[in-house]
Every structure is written in C-alpha cells, then in structure tokens.
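Changelog-adjacent note: as of this version, every example in the card shows the full chain rather than a window. The one below runs 86 residues end to end.
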Amino acid sequence: MSFTPPAELFGEQGIIVLIVIAVVLFGSTQIPKLARSLGSAQKEFKKGLDEGGKDDPAAPLHEAPKAAPAPAPAPPAADGSAGSTS
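Full-length structure tokens:
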C-alpha cells in the first residue's frame, strides 16, 4: 500500500470543495476575521520564540526558591505547667 501526499489526495476539486464548505460553515464575513486572528496568533508565537531565544544562556533556567529560616522553638512556660494535664 502506498500513501500519497495530501495535496494529491484532494486534488484541485477537493480543495475547491473544502473552500466552499468553509464559506458555507463560517460565512463570507467571518473568514477574513478568522484569517486575521490566525495571523496575529502566529506573529505572537514567533515573537515569544524570539524573546525566549534572547535570554542569557549562562543564567540558570530555574532558580531554587530560598527557604525561610525555621522559627525558634517557643520557650517553656514559666508556671511549670508545660506538659502536665492534671
């Protein structure tokens, strides 16, 4: 069994049918808005990739959070009742 690339699978008629179905489903006014939002999302994604690549590679990726010092134990009670339940 041999697989064909998707462009050959649909052919010209299949692509035309897909376009017609998209126009019917989304409406002719929504398709430009959809394409615009996809383009802006792609631009933001590429911008994020570029910003991520500009970070200093020598810096650690994740810094370990610094632990707060443990609180000092409470001093024993002055009346001598610590630990007795009578």
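Structural remarks: The chain has a mean pLDDT of 75.
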